[in-house]
Known about the structure:
The complex is a heterodimer of chains A (276) and B (672).
Chain A: H1 2-23, H2 30-38, H3 44-60, H4 62-70, H5 77-89, H6 92-102, H7 108-118, H8 127-130, H9 140-149, H10 156-159, H11 168-181, H12 187-190, H13 199-209, H14 213-223, H15 229-241, H16 248-252, H17 260-274
Helix pairs in contact in A: 1-3, 2-3, 4-6, 6-7, 7-9, 9-11, 11-13, 13-15, 14-15, 15-17
Chain B: H1 33-46, H2 48-52, H3 61-73, H4 95-102, H5 107-118, H6 124-133, H7 152-158, H8 163-186, H9 192-206, H10 213-221, H11 226-236, H12 242-254, H13 257-277, E1 289-293, E2 296-300, E3 307-308, E4 314-317, E5 323-324, E6 330-332, E7 339-344, E8 350-353, E9 361-363, E10 366-371, E11 377-380, E12 387-397, E13 403-410, E14 413-423, E15 429-436, E16 439-440, E17 444-450, E18 456-459, E19 463-465, E20 469-477, E21 480-482, E22 492-497, E23 503-506, E24 508-510, E25 513-515, E26 519-524, E27 530-532, E28 535-537, E29 540-542, E30 546-551, E31 557-559, E32 562-564, E33 567-569, E34 573-578, E35 584-587, E36 594-596, E37 600-605, E38 611-614, E39 635-640, E40 646-647, E41 656-659, E42 663-667
Parallel strand pairs in B: 2-4, 3-5, 4-7, 5-8, 6-9, 7-10, 8-11, 9-12, 10-12, 11-13, 12-14, 13-15, 14-16, 14-17, 15-18, 16-21, 17-22, 18-23, 20-24, 21-25, 22-26, 23-27, 24-28, 25-29, 26-30, 27-31, 28-32, 29-33, 30-34, 31-35, 33-36, 34-37, 35-38, 37-39, 38-40, 39-42
Antiparallel strand pairs in B: 1-2, 19-20, 41-42
Amino acid sequence: xxxxxxQNWSVVFCAFLCLVAARxxxxxxxxxxxxxxxxxxNTEEKRAAKKVAWDELMARGPEALGEVMKRSxxxxxxxxxxxxxxxxxxxxxxxxxxxxxxxxxxxxxTRKLAAFFLGWHDTPQYAxxxxxxxxxxEAAGAALRTLGKWHVKKAVPDVLPFLRHPREMRRIAGxxxxxxxxxxxxxPELMxxxxxxYFTVxxxxxxxxxxxxxxxxxxxxxxxxxxxxxxRRHIIRTLGVMxxxxxxxxxxxxxxxxxxxxRQDVEEALTAITAR
Amino acid sequence: MKHPVLECGGLTPLCTRxxxxxxATKRCPASALQKSLLLAAVIAFCSASVFAxxxxxxxxxxxxxxxxxxxxxxxxxxxxxxxxxxxxxxxxVLSCASNLLARPLELPRLADEVLSAVTPSDPEPAWKLAxxxxxxxxxxxxxxxxxxxxxxxxxxxxxxxxxxxxxALTQFRLRVMQADGIRKxxxxxxxxxxxxxxxxxxxxxxxxxxxxxxxxxxLVRAGLLSDDVSRAVAESLAVDPxxxxxxxxxxxxxxxxxxxxxxxxxxxxxxxxLRDQVAGVEKWPTQPARxxxxxxxxxxxxxxADAYACDALLILDPGGDDRYGAGAGAANAMRGxxxxxxxxxxxxxxxxxxxxxxxxxSVFGASVIVDAAxxxxxxxxxxxxxxxxxxxxxxxxxxGDDVYRAGGCAQGAASFGVGCLRDEGGNDxxxxxxxxxxxxxxxxxxxLVDVTGNDRYFAGGREHDYERNDDRYVSCAQGFAIGMxxxxxxxxxxxxxxxxxxxxxxxxxxxxxSYWYSVGLLLDVAGDDTYSVYQYGQGAGIHLSAxxxxxxxxxxxxxxxxxxxxxxxxxxxxxxxxxxxxxxYTADHHSQGRALNNAMALLVDEGGDDxxxxxxxxxxxxxxxxGDKREYGSMALLLDLAGKDSYSCGAQDGARMRRPDFGxxxxxxxxx
Lengths: 276, 672
């Protein structure tokens, strides 16, 4: 009895989907498709229409992404989510040219999203298109991230000023970009950020330094004796993270530091250094 | 947080022992002492108003000292909590909501202020705080509006009543005239079309007029044109929300909210004075008496069971088991009734309506219900029971075991105004479909205050949480505030329960939580309480917003699934404080001092033997998060300051366990 009822419902639902699909014929406009694809699915009908619209947009490929990006300046968070899902699921070789076109949009929000999405895939051949966005107040954070993920070494001189940017988030983005690019020449520029006002920046800088090997180890050991406050503890911790054997001796001298938090950090660092 | 009378003098001084708190038997970390003293001085200064009122701060000096020590272990200071979170650009935002993102540790202090203001039965402190939180000035000047109408139209009619009663009614009418003048000034730049536009947009969206024909019919019955409703539905479907949002906010800007609140306060004062003035009246009509005034009908009832189902400025009933139907107590300016009041002095009464604007609700007006005694039943199919939209609404229920049921936008709920439900006693049941029980939308103050009794709060069962948890319901209640993302921040919502063993039951978004530049608070002062929510709740800040749950003591149970129990997400601030008792915390993930996507989360349990259960302990209990593609951390703290405790993450008593990206489980053991 129940099985029969379930079968009946399945038939009805399939018929319903067919009706929706028929409405969303290949001739459906992008306005119609995007409307259904971003709509809140609080009824069976809307959810079915949403699925059909999504499938159709994906079938139309990069052109459909371009249409969504044209609307991405709207203050409708679901448009951004739609674009994000399409970028995640489409072939990067096909989506990257579309996103590059959006980098020159008149809308800051569109430029920002395009720069951000580009960094999800390894397409560094478009670095020259992204570099100018470092001067774009709205899109600079996304551009920093993307240039970092693409390891664009020539971006370093333009990234360095962001380490002194008044906005905490820009400083973080700058640090992360330099970490990803991986040029150890920036170590001296990163060191002052271990004493930043905010832990978010300090921790990002410490993490970046821990990836730079010997040059960072030298800089940290040189700074240790004269360092103070939060920076000093980050130096201790980072040397531990790097398992710096050369740090063991100077760190042991700090085991009698009056600050118990410093002593605790030193103990943890020494444990990490001496661990096999 | 303790009751001011029961726990007077129970403050926990720094590094001392005291009988009132097990936490006080804990020794402060010596390393933090100097910093603690400095911070304590700052906190003492900041909390001066709370100390003066005799209340114990939610974040007291002992907890503050340990918080400082925990931050120290993380190589942080309180200043680090101000990491960048205020990244939105709302056109309208309350200063308290945006400031809390930069100074999260002021959130408990704000909760202290709310508790202090709503605890007394005198509503004046609540009014003052509401205005301040809404960034409005004092409204004293508003009362100087000159009266412009003759008083004699109805005096002759009610002159036949008991002289004390007649005099009280005359006074009331004068005060209403003043309130009416203030209200008209508040709305002089807002046309009738404007009003219908925002009412249609708000309620059509809230009750889903797009999908339900009965809702559309209800909106028309409430005074809207069918074209208003059609336009609202059409605009809600637009892919680009900017034009309709711009139109809506333009009406908001043309409204003098300060004056609108002043009108509501004047009307509220008029009703309360009337109640006091008629308290000694012994001679009441034997048949309900009606009197027409320019502001609506005044009805004086009998000591017997009366039934009212009509629009009225005032229904004054001395007793009997009465029934209040459509129109009674509903201030709906769309239907020409901007002011509505009920004063019911005794009896087991029933308030029941199918209308959009139910008893104790206001739309572009002011509603006041005072029910002094009896076991009462309140039911509103839609809005009611202390619900305001562009206006004010107060419902005060005295003694008795009461039942409150509503569809939505009810039980202490407001947008662009103040909505308050205060229940003075009895074991009460609160049931709302969604949006209520301390709910605040844009420029809203929504407070539910229950003074005593073992109460049950339920929110849910109306709107599914589609596309996130299809089998769950959206609650948006029990201390929940929300803005109009991205254009406007929300208000300040609070559910305050001052005593009794209470049960809080909800699904998604409830119990001290907020979304987008808002503040949501649940403050339970005493009792053994049970909290249950599925997602987003129990002290949670979601998307650039702040939420807090504070429980003053007792053996409490906290149950949730995700983003609950001192949790925060996406530049949010979420906090849970429990000040004593053996408590049990249960969650699946992203909970118990868990900060997700560059947020700040804090759970502080000050006493008792507690258990922290998490199905995914690597995503709970003092764990931060690097924000995925943002690649920087959060601040996450779980502090347990006394007792023998158990943690799923493996922490032991006395732990200083650093957790990823960047958090800590900080436990103070008995002999420490």
